[in-house]
Amino acid sequence: MDELTSKIFQLITNSGDARSTVFEALGAAQAGNMDKANRYIGMAKEGLIAAHKVQTELIQQESSGDKLELSLLMVHAQDHLMTSMLAKDLIEKMIYMQNEINELKNNK
């Protein structure tokens, strides 16, 4: 496997793991376990940071004049990263709302 393909798979793996983890965070929040939800969000952020570092390396490589091949795999990796980032942002908001719902239920 060449270096570019390896980096592409790092992007896919890190962002995919992060997306799975934010959905675990949402499940924990729905179960009323906000501490666990926050831990999962932290783990997801770490995965997204790792993926973003790889993406930045690829952008810098191309910016320095080393033209990268735009393959279907590269497009898939970028799509994975962007949807994972969006999922994290939306799920953080959903967790906040779930916490509000949980507090309202507990104050009845």
TrEMBL record:
One of its GO terms (biological process) is phosphoenolpyruvate-dependent sugar phosphotransferase system. Transmembrane segments: none annotated. Binds 1 Mg(2+) ion per trimer. InterPro entries: PTS_IIA_lac/cel, PTS_IIA_lac/cel_sf. Its cofactor is Mg(2+). The active site is at H76 (tele-phosphohistidine intermediate). The modification Phosphohistidine is found at H76. Mg(2+) binds at D79. GO terms for molecular function: metal ion binding; transferase activity. It comes from the Bacteria. Keywords: Magnesium, Metal-binding, Phosphotransferase system, Sugar transport, Transferase, Transport. This is PTS system, cellobiose-specific IIA component.
